[in-house]
Amino acid sequence: MMLSVVIPVYNEKNTILELLNLVSSVTLEKEIILIDDYSTDGTRDILRTLDNGIAKVLYHDFNKGKGAALRTGFNHVTGDIVIIQDADLEYDPQQYSKLIQPILDGKADVVYGSRFVTGEYRRVLFFWHMVGNKFLTMLSNILTNLNLTDMETCYKAFRREILGNIYIEENRFGFEPEFTAKIARLNLRIYETGISYSGRNYSEGKKIGWKDGISALRCILKYNLFR
Q1: Which residue in 29, 37, 76, 173 is a FRET match for 56, CA 20 to 30 A apart?
Q2: Residue 52, Ramachandran bin (φ over 0: left; ψ between -120 and 50: alpha; else beta)
Q3: How many Cβ atoms sit within 10 Å of the Cβ of residue 185?
Q4: Residue 93, strand partner residues
Q5: What is the DSSP string of 134-188?
Q6: Domain boundaries of the chain, sorted by first residue
Q7: Contact, 192 vs 150, CB < 8 A?
C-alpha cells in the first residue's frame, strides 16, 4: 500500500526543508509530490536544489492558489492512498499512520484529521478563527448531513480512485468545502481521527484570512445547493 503525499507550496522557504525531512522520515512506502505555486521568497530556488529521488517537484508559472496546486498534484499521484500535507509545520507527518489506519482496516474511504476532537496536543491561538471554523463546519454539516468536527482541516486521506469521481474547481482555500460537498454526494465511508496541531500566527507566515472565510461560505452554498 503506497501513499501519495501531495504538498502545495507557496513562500515557505523557512520550513520546506524541515517539512520534507519530516515527511521523508515517515516509515511508510510513499511518493512525495511538491507543487510550487510560484513562490517569490526563495522557496523555488531551494526546491531546484533537491535530489530528484526525494520528491517529484512541479512548478506553476504564476500563483494560482492552494486548490489549483492540489489539482496539479492530484494529476500525478500513483499511490493507493492520497494524503494532503501543508508545507508549513502545523501538521505532523508522524500521524500518517493514524490517518490511514481506518482505510487499511477496510472501514473508511476518506479520513479527516480533526484538530478539535483529539487527545493530542494543539497550540492555543485565535479564538475567532475557531469560531469561524466551527460555524463553517456546522453549515457544511447541515447541507451534507455529515457530522464532521473539522471540515477545514488540511489533513485529509483518501483512496486514490476517489479522484476519478470528482474534479476540483476551486483555486484557493475553497477546496475544503468543495471536496467535502463532493465526497458527501458519493456516499463514501468517512471517518475522523484526532491529530496534533501546531498552528502558526501571521508573523510566522500564516496566510488564510477573513476573505477566505467568506469564500468558504460561498463554496459551501455553491457546491451543496446549486450542483
Answers
A1: 173
A2: alpha
A3: 13
A4: none
A5: HHHHHHHHHHHT---S-TT-S-EEEEGGGGGT-----SSTTHHHHHHHHHHHTT-
A6: 3-225
A7: yes
Distance CA 65, CA 72 (A): 11
d(CA 6, CA 66): 11
User: 16, 47 in Cβ contact below 8 A?
Assistant: yes
- Position 193, amino acid: T
Tell me how far apart the alpha carbons of residues 167 and 16 are, in angstroms, rounded to a whole number: 28
Separation in Å, CA 9 to CA 6, 48, 70, 95, 124? 10, 13, 10, 20, 24
Nearest to 141 by CA among 114, 161, 119: 114
Position 197, amino acid: Y
pLDDT in tens, 124-143: 666 767 787 889 999 999 99
Rg for the chain, CA atoms, rounded: 16
pTM for this one?
0.92
Express each pLDDT in 205-216 by its tens digit.
555 666 777 888
What superfamily would CATH give domain 3-225?
Spore Coat Polysaccharide Biosynthesis Protein SpsA; Chain A (3.90.550.10)
